[in-house]
Specification:
With 688 residues, this protein is mostly helical. It is 72% helix and 1% strand. The protein folds into three domains: 221 residues, no CATH class; 256 residues, no CATH class; 87 residues, no CATH class. It is built from 35 helices and two strands. It has a two-stranded antiparallel sheet. The N and C termini lie far apart (52 Å).
């Protein structure tokens, strides 16, 4: 894989877990596998050493102090807290230039240290952003976004080129071309036919707007990054360096390793735990997969199925609270709601996703006689807790601060401080100064790549804002869909999937939150449900061929082609396609509505998803396999349709009342279950 998530195989979100980890040989039942951090290093660019490593460490320390200074009003720098635009410019000065050092212009040149021209590009980028930081007050007072001096327009043009090059190095040519074209849309907006026609601006004015306005490169994405995301990237890296990945894997092995298909169930739990904190798909596949995929293969799962389990579980982890990756924080900024509200709303859909995965794996194991892992292969739960007990108060503190106190900005910093303090107090876990420096360097790397992406994606928002297109496009899309919410949802799902192929989840979400969310909300759908719907469908491309980045990450570990893993992933991950339609058509599943509505939705949704999962796998727990004949396809159709209607019995879906939909669902499910029972009962009675 080369170039961005599509071409390079890992993005900023995927590099926040870089670093220490532990060799897979330390995990239960493994020997001789590559260390997770080594595999991730191969995906993301140059190794950090020498002067480059020193620069990254220094950047991480200064950025952390700068963010804490802003959040806590510490007045560490010249006795002041910076105005917002100067603060954001300084973050860009410290982080964006690092992209040119860690990611080479040509991925084939990633072996050695940065050449002189990459150092020059880094210095030049720092100087340009520094110039804007110096003039931050003038930018606000003189309204540079619409009336910038000539020098600012020239420097903005150069910065635009550097930002696009930074995006190319982090995300590849496809995404760069899309962003570059859209960011320059204001220049030709009046020549574009309706419904995309807008108010044109000159090229110099457009470029100046992108870097002087609070609605473009330094708009919502960068503000969310500066206020919230930095802390969670710091926490994710610290968690990995203190051995959090190994703890999650061991805990999962101890909890479910002995059950039917236990090795795969371990993959689900460990991936969910790791990915929910790190917010990374690719790194999660690599760091967890080197442990779980060989274990699955050893216990009887095919290589393609084992890879698919890890790919799907790691993809779904980004949708799992409490952290959900950087996208959720951007969503909170878009909606003007607390992150705790976003995480709470996302809880039930995430549980439905993983429940469907568990049901399918159990059915697969039952059909093939795959048992749990042998006791001597598994760690003891008590020993795992004694070894990693200090993670429990850390997570408790994190959740308490985020959900109860709604202090998502400083919560990860407090949690990181507690984690490092306990870790360093324990001789068996203590990190050396060299390892602490590696941790800091990895923090800077993750922050730098994410800044490069967010600065570029912000220009899309700026282009739509500058031309006034964002407001009119919503009305046009509603008109094209005839005002039908379901048609708009299908359009939104397909659009999200297509954009997800060439963009990171965060980038895809930001673009569609501007273009697609308003018409969906205008059609009468719940705003929070709409934004979660877009986020879910932005994740679909990670497991859906032909892109399927998570399957490409799993393929070398599983020893089978990514396409074969992708085919299995689509089937295993059906819930990621279905669940968004359930909660956007029935907002009670994201806890919106009266207590009675929410209770009814929960009572119906979980059995509904279990039924659909059983039908997808072809095995109904307690009844046996679904017939493998034409009757079997009818049984599966009844169970799938009935399960979906049970999970989302909305009148706008069928035109019937809720009671009628539930009744129809129960009839279809009963028919499928009875036919399955009759088939298996008849088969058992036949003489051998």
């Amino acid at each position: 894989m080369t170039g961005g998530e599509t071409q390079r195989g890992a993005t900023a979100r995927d590099s926040i877990e870089l670093g220490s980890g532990r060799p897979a040989a330390e995990a239960p039942g493994h020997a001789g596998e590559a260390a997770p951090e080594q595999m991730v290093e191969e995906l993301v660019g140059r190794p950090m050493a020498g002067a480059m490593r020193a620069v990254f460490v220094a950047a991480a320390v200064v950025v952390t102090l700068l963010v804490l200074n802003q959040l806590l009003n510490l007045q560490l720098f010249t006795g002041v807290v910076f105005i917002e635009n100067r603060y954001l410019y300084i973050l860009a000065v410290l982080l964006f230039p690092l992209v040119f050092l860690v990611l080479p212009a040509n991925p084939k040149d990633a072996a050695g240290p940065p050449p002189w021209y990459d150092w020059a590009l880094a210095a030049f980028a720092a100087a340009l952003f520094g110039w804007f930081a110096y003039h931050a007050t003038r930018i606000l007072s003189e309204g540079w976004e619409y009336n910038a001096p000539t020098m600012a327009k020239v420097l903005a043009g150069v910065l635009w080129l550097l930002v696009m090059e930074g995006l190319r190095r982090t995300s590849g040519w496809p995404m760069t071309i899309v962003v570059a074209v859209v960011s320059l849309y204001p220049v030709v907006a009046e020549q574009i036919p309706n419904p995309l026609k807008g108010s044109s601006q000159s090229l110099p004015d457009t470029l100046a707007f992108h870097f002087a306005s609070a609605e473009s490169a330094f708009g919502i994405p960068m503000r969310a990054f500066a206020e919230i995301v930095v802390g969670f990237i710091v926490f994710g890296v610290a968690l990995n360096f203190t051995g959090g990945g190994r703890f999650f894997n061991d805990l999962a092995f101890a909890l479910v390793g002995r059950f039917r298909g236990g090795a795969a169930q371990v993959g689900i739990i460990s991936s969910a735990l790791q990915g929910s904190i790190s917010g990374s798909v690719i790194s999660n596949v690599v760091s967890s997969g080197v442990v779980t995929i060989p274990a699955m293969k050893r216990t009887g799962f095919t290589a393609a199925y084992a890879g698919a389990v890890e790919a799907v579980a790691s993809t779904g982890a980004v949708l799992m609270p409490p952290v959900m990756g950087s996208t959720a924080f951007v969503m909170a900024s878009f909606l003007g709601r607390s992150y705790g509200e976003i995480a709470l709303a996302a809880t039930v859909p995430a549980l439905l996703f993983y429940l469907a995965l568990v049901v399918q794996i159990d059915g697969y194991s039952a059909l093939r006689g795959i048992t749990g892992m042998r006791p001597f292969e598994l760690p003891r739960l008590g020993a795992v807790i004694r070894e990693g007990w200090f993670y429990l108060p850390v997570f408790a503190l994190l959740v308490f601060l985020m959900v109860y106190l709604q202090d998502e900005a400083t919560a990860p910093f407090y949690a990181t401080a507690l984690l490092i303090a306990i870790n360093q107090a324990l001789p068996s876990h203590r990190m050396s100064w060299a390892k602490l420096a590696d941790c800091a360097a990895s923090v800077a790397r993750g922050l730098a790549e994410l800044v490069a992406i967010l600065l570029a994606i912000g220009t899309i928002i700026g282009a739509l804002s500058m031309t006034g297109l964002a407001g009119t496009l919503a009305n046009d899309l509603v008109y094209l869909a005839g005002g039908a919410p379901l048609v708009l949802l299908v359009m939104g799902a397909l659009t999200s999937f297509v954009f997800g192929m060439g963009m990171t989840v965060t980038a895809c979400y930001i673009f569609l939150a501007i273009v697609l969310a308003p018409p969906l909300v205008k059609a009468g759908l719940d705003p929070l449900a709409v934004h979660l719907f877009i986020m879910y469908w932005g994740m679909v491309s990670f497991i859906t061929p032909p892109v399927a980045l998570a399957t490409f990450a799993a393929a070398p570990i599983a020893g089978v082609s990514a396409m074969r893993i992708g085919v299995q992933s689509v089937k295993l991950g059906f819930a990621i396609y279905v669940v968004p339609f359930c909660f956007v058509l029935n907002p009670a599943l994201i806890l919106k509505g009266s207590a009675a509505e929410v209770a009814l939705a929960l009572v119906l949704a979980f059995p509904g998803i279990i039924i659909v999962g059983a039908a997808m796998q072809g095995y109904v727990g307690g009844l046996g396999p679904v017939p493998k004949n034409p009757l079997g396809w009818a049984v599966r159709a009844c169970l799938i349709l009935g399960g979906f209607l049970l999970a989302a019995p909305m009148p706008r879906l069928t035109g019937f009342s809720i009671a009628a939909n539930i009744g129809l669902a129960l009839v279809l499910i009963a028919a499928g279950l009875v036919l399955t029972w009759l088939h298996n009962n008849t088969t058992r009675r036949k003489p051998a």
